[in-house]
Specification:
By secondary structure, this protein is α+β, with helices and mostly antiparallel strands. It has 3 domains: 2-111, PAS domain (Beta-Lactamase); 116-190; 198-347, Heat Shock Protein 90 (2-Layer Sandwich), CATH 3.30.565.10. It has 10 helices and 12 strands. The chain has helices at 2-12, 31-37, 49-53, 60-74, 113-162, 166-190, 202-219, 241-260, 294-299, 315-325, and strands spanning 16-20, 26-29, 80-84, 90-96, 105-111, 198-201, 222-227, 236-239, 268-277, 280-287, 329-335, 339-347. It has a 5-stranded antiparallel beta sheet with strand order 2-1-5-4-3, with helices on both faces. A 5-stranded mixed beta sheet has the order 7-9-10-12-11, covered by helices on one side. It starts with a helix and ends with a strand. The structure holds adenosine-5'-diphosphate and magnesium ion.
Length: 351
């Protein structure tokens, strides 16, 4: 009877368990493992490995994984395997065999998606902290020479005027000021310090940003639609207004650029909405531009990742950092060739 008890414990475990005997026949499989393979347990028990690899009820992508698992285990003697499926779940498979197993092979399959996510976030944070430090150091080093160039150009100005080339001085000064502005903006947002916060209603913030970008968007042939949330004026967030504006501007600029790459046959649209979601307000920015491939989606928030010839790849990594500093969440979804949607969730101020 003890055997039955252990068997039902194994059956109900939250990890998948599969046991092969020494002749390669599947002798045990628990509920979870059958669920992962998406096929009834009965259909599997007694199958040989060969039969499994050609089993009509097992989907092709899963059969491929079984084949790889088999090769890795038998040929390269690997004992740990990692897989991810189409829904972006990650699994860790551990293989136990050898003397204590009497020739049997035990496979245990664990869903490690949550660990993966935590690991990924930690990695991302680490990279951003380093980026912040490097950026601050570089910005500092660039600013000093810029200041002296600016000073000398001002001294040269009368001479340039004399030569009828005052225009050069104007251009140089304007360009230096632009470079300084960029550095300032960047330092401002990559600083790890706490943001300067004030409490503002989300709708007025969005209205201002739309005002700022509307004409630029129209010139590039896209319309920005701001869908007003009827309760938007009562949804307060505690934010560094400059920083959050910068994030939304970054996302809108990317959207405009994504639309710029699409053929003339569809009207470019950027739709901005906001609504309360639990203790957050969710701002959604959706465009009908070129969208993104899975590969791009995976690296989107990495510093210096860009697919544009003239891109810096900083916009979204800086945005990610700003939103994190605000205790918020930034996320994205996209369909290649069709659309992209960014979601920013900011904690609501509770009255
Ligand atoms: N709305 C969007 N549609 C399609 N691709 C996008 C969108 N937003 C961002 N991307 C992709 O993410 C990359 C990184 O964006 P970002 O960090 O702003 O850097 P940059 O704009 O300088 O390339 C872009 O190069 C682009 O490939
Ligand atoms: Mg950008």
């Amino acid at each position: 009877m003890a055997r039955n008890k252990y068997e039902s414990v194994l059956q109900q475990m939250d990890s998948g368990i599969v046991l092969f005997d020494s002749s390669g026949v599947l002798s045990f499989i628990n509920v979870e493992a059958a669920k992962l393979l998406d096929i009834p347990r009965k259909a599997l028990i007694g199958c040989s490995l060969r039969e499994l690899l050609f089993h009509p009820l097992i989907k092709k992508d899963k059969r491929k994984k079984i084949l790889r698992l088999y090769k890795d285990t038998i040929l390269t003697r690997k004992r740990y395997h990692e897989f991810s499926d189409r829904n972006d779940r990650h699994y860790l498979i551990t293989v136990t065999y050898g003397d204590q197993m009497d020739g049997d092979f035990l496979f245990s399959i664990k869903d490690v998606s949550d660990f993966k996510r935590i690991e990924q976030t930690a990695y991302q944070n680490d990279k951003l902290a380093i980026l912040g430090k490097i950026a601050a150091a570089i910005a500092h080093e660039i600013r000093n020479p810029l200041t002296s160039i600016r000073g000398f150009i001002q001294l040269l100005r009368p001479h340039l005027m004399h030569l009828g080339k005052e225009e050069y001085a104007r251009i140089i000064l304007a360009e230096i000021d632009r470079a300084n502005d960029i550095i300032f903006e960047f330092l401002n947002s990559s600083k790890p310090s706490a943001p300067m916060t004030s409490e503002v209603p989300i709708s007025s913030l969005l209205r201002e940003v739309v005002l700022l970008t509307e004409s630029e968007a129209l010139m590039k042939g896209c319309e920005i639609e701001l869908e007003e949330d009827p309760h938007g004026d009562t949804h307060y967030v505690s934010i560094d207004v400059k920083q959050i504006k910068q994030v939304i501007l970054n996302i809108i600029r990317n959207a405009i650029e994504a639309i710029g790459h699409v053929q003339e046959d569809r009207q470019g649209r950027i739709r901005i909405t906001s609504e309360k979601e639990g203790r957050y307000v969710a701002i959604r920015i959706r465009d009908n531009g070129i969208g993104m491939e899975q590969k791009t989606l995976e690296h989107l928030f990495d510093p210096f990742f860009t697919t544009k010839a003239e891109g810096t790849g900083l916009g979204l990594s800086v945005s990610y950092r700003i939103i994190k500093n605000h205790g918020g969440i930034i996320d994205v979804d996209s369909k290649a060739e069709e659309w992209t949607e960014f979601v920013i969730k900011l904690p609501l101020v509770t009255p």
